Amino acid sequence: MTTSWADSVAASEEEAVAAAPAPAAAAAAAKFSSDQASQPRPTRRTYVPPHLRSRPQSSVAPAPPSAAAPAVIDRVGYGGPPAGSWSTGGFRPDAGRSGGGHVPAGGRNGRGGGRDRGRDRGVNPFADKDGLEQGIVGQENAAINFDAYEDIPVEATGNNVPPPAGTFADIDLGEALNLNIQRCKYVKPTPIQRHAIPISLAGRDLMACAQTGSGKTAAFCFPIISGIMRGRYVQRPRGRTAYPLALILSPTRELSIQIHEEARKFSYQTGVKAVVAYGGAPINQQLRELERGVDILVATPGRLVDLLERARVSLQIIKYLALDEADRMLDMGFEPQIRKIVEQTGMPPCGLRQTMLFSATFPKEIQRLASDFLSNYIYLTVGRVGSSTDLIVQRVERVHESDKRSHLMDLLHAQRENGFHGKQALTLVFVETKRGADSLENWLYTNGFPATSIHGDRSQQERELALRSFKSGRTPILVATDVAARGLDIPHVAHVINFDLPNDIDDYVHRIGRTGRAGNTGLATAFFNENSSSLARPLAELMQEANQEVPAWLTHYASRSHGGGRSRRSGGSRFGGRDFRREGSFNRGTDYYGGGYNSTGHGVSAGYGGYGVYGTGVTSAWE
Ligand SMILES: Nc1ncnc2c1ncn2[C@@H]1O[C@H](COP(=O)(O)OP(=O)(O)OP(=O)(O)O)[C@@H](O)[C@H]1O
User: Fold this and answer.
1) Are 281 and 340 part of one and the same domain?
2) The Cα angle at residue 320 between residues 319 and 322, in degrees rounded to 5
3) How much distance in Å is there from the Cα of 392 to the middle of ligand 1?
4) 7 pLDDT exceeds 70?
5) What is this structure's pTM?
C-alpha cells in the first residue's frame, strides 16, 4: 500500500507492516482464541436501519414550585436495618430498563424526605433470572488474575497517609457490606482498593489514579456505604425534596447506570439506598424514586442540575462527593456544571464534606483545577498514571483512510477463522463521529457481521438496548463513539479496535481499557494514518511504557511529529501524572509525605520531607 503520507515515512519495515496487516492482526487475535463460541447468524428481521430508528420521547413534567427545605438535624442511629420496616408493601421488579433501580410498590415508607431504610425491599441484585441467589460463600471470581497486580508501583503523597490494608478482613467495613463483598466473589482487594479504602475510611480527601479495570468503583463505593451505615446521620426533612448523603457524579448515562448497579449490589441489605438519575430517560420515574428516599445519588451532571433547579434534590447535607472519571468531569466540557453543582447549590464546602476523585488519567492542569474541590488531600497513584495496563496487547497498523473498511473486514474474518469471536470474545470498534458509527454498523451488518452501535444521537432506550445486545453476544460487535470510552465494564470484550484514533492519548487509554479488565488479557488494534499523526509521539511513548512492540515506522513517525495529541509526559516525571503539588512551591517539601509501595502494601521507599528524600527528583517507586 503506497500512500502519500506513507511515503514520507521510512521505507522498508513500513512496507512489511503495511503489506501484511491482516495476518499480524490474525496472529494477535489467535493468541486470544481460547474462548470459542458459535457465531450468531445475522438476523435481519430484528435490524432497524439507523435512519429509521425512533427518536426519544420526551416526558419531562413541568417543574412544580418547591421551596428548598432546610436540613433538619435529628440524629438517627444506625445499628443495622430497622426492624419491621418492610413488612408491608410488596415489590415490583425493575421497570425493564437495565439501570432502573428497584421500585417498591408500597409508596413512601415511614419518615418522609428520604428514610426508606432497612432491608432492601427491591429485587435482589444477586439473584438470577429465576429470583434465586447462589450461596454467598463461593469461589473467587474466576476471571480475576490477581498475580497480574503484584508488584505494581504505588505512590501516595500528602500529610499522614493512612497505611494500606492487606485484606478485606483488615478493613472494618461492616458485616452487611462484607457479606455483599463475598456475594460479589471479591476475595481480596485490588491494589487501588487496598490503598484508597483506608484513606477514605480515615475521612481524608483523595485524588486517586489507577489503571483501567482495576476496581476503582468499589474503591469509592465501599467507604461511602460503610460510612453511611455507621454514621449517625440526620433524619431528612419530609417533603418532595430528596436529601442524599452521598453524590457520585459520572460523565455518561451508561456509566451512571453501571455505578448504580454496582452500588445496589454493594449496599444490598445494608439499609443504604442508592438511586440513579440521568438524562434521556423519563424524569418522572426518577422523581418518584427519589421521593422514596435516597442515601447515595448517582447522577450525570445535566440531569442533576435539572433536579436541583426543580428543587427536587438538595445537596445541603452531602457528606461524600465522588467524581468518577474526574479528569473528564473537570475538563472543558463539564467543568462549569460541576462548579455550579459543587460551589453554588448549598453543598457543604470542602473540609466539611469528604471528596474523592478517581480516574485512570489525571493531566496536571486538571489536577490543579481539581484541587479547588479538595482539602488536605492525598494523591494516590496505583500503577503508572495514565498508562495502559500490560495486560492489553496493543497493535498499531498503518491503514489508509479509504482502506479502513476492507482492513476491518480482513481482521474480523481472521478472528472468525481463529475462533476468536462470538459471545466470549466481543469486539468494540471506536469511531470518531455519530454518523460514522451508524454507517459502519450498517455496513458491517450488510456484510454478515451482526453489529450494533452506541452514540449520542441514539435515544437512551436505543443506547441501552444496544449495550444489552452487545453484552449478551447477540450482536458481538459494537460500533461506538467516545460515549462508550470511559468506565464501562463489559465482560468478554476481547478486542478493541480504534477504527479512528482519538485526538487525545488519554482517550486512547480509556478506550483500550474496555478490554484487559480485572486482571484479564485483551487485545487493542489501532488503524493509524496521517489523520492521527498528532498522536504518533504519545502513542509510541505509551506503547513503549507498557512493554509493547512499537513498529519502527511509528517510532520514525513520532520522531518527526510536532507533538499534539497532548503529550502525556508534559511537565512531570517519566510516567507523568505525578502529584502536581510536588512541582512548584510544594516541591521544597516541608510537611510532605512521599511514600512508595508495591501493591502488597509493604513500603519499598518512604520518607518525610517530600521530594527531597528521593535525591534524584524521581520517585523511586516508579522505577
Ligand atoms: N476485589 C475485587 N475482586 C474481584 N473482582 C473485582 C474486585 N474489585 C473489582 N472487581 C471487578 O473488576 C472489574 C473492573 O472494576 P471497575 O469497573 O471498578 O474498574 P475501574 O478501575 O473503575 O475501570 P475504569 O478505569 O475503566 O473505569 C469489575 O468487573 C469489578 O466487578
Assistant:
1) yes
2) 160
3) 15
4) no
5) 0.77
